[in-house]
Amino acid sequence: MNSIKTLATFLGWCTIINFGFLLLGVLVWMLAIPYTSQLAASMISPHEVKVSFFNGLMIYRSGIIFFNLVPYIALKIMDRAQADVRN
Fold first, then answer.
1. How far is CA 25 from the centre of its chain?
2. Are 64 and 15 in contact (CB under 8 A)?
3. What phi, psi does 20 have (nearest 5°)?
4. For burial by CB atoms within 10 Å, which of 1, 40, 62, 80 has the most?
């Protein structure tokens, strides 16, 4: 089996799964932010809770893009170029 195809398939599934977790995080953020703001109110303001959670989601999204999606696209380009050379 072609190792480029195997690695591209692996990264593709990693990307899909990680975006699923990101979507879950966004849903939790939208639904649970009033409760988490109340819990953390003694330490930080509700606005800071929202900003902190949003920043965490954006860092996670950036990690997905840089460590899963970009290598996946690069491997797909390499696989296509390799297939063109064979033909």
1. 10
2. yes
3. -65, -45
4. 40
- The token pair that represents 42 in the structure block: 């003694």
Among 32, 83, 86, residue whose Cα is nearest residue 57: 32
Residue the block writes with tokens 């939790």 = 28
What pTM was computed for the model?
Answer: 0.84
Q: Torsion angle of alpha carbons 25, 30, 57, 62, nearest 10°?
A: 90
Using CA atoms, how far residue 73 sits from 65, 68, 69, in Å, is 10, 9, 6
| Residue reference for tokens 């509700």 | 46
In this structure, is the dihedral angle defined by the CA atoms of residues 24, 25, 30 and 36, taken in order, positive or negative? positive
pLDDT digit string (tens) for 18-28?
A: 999 999 999 98
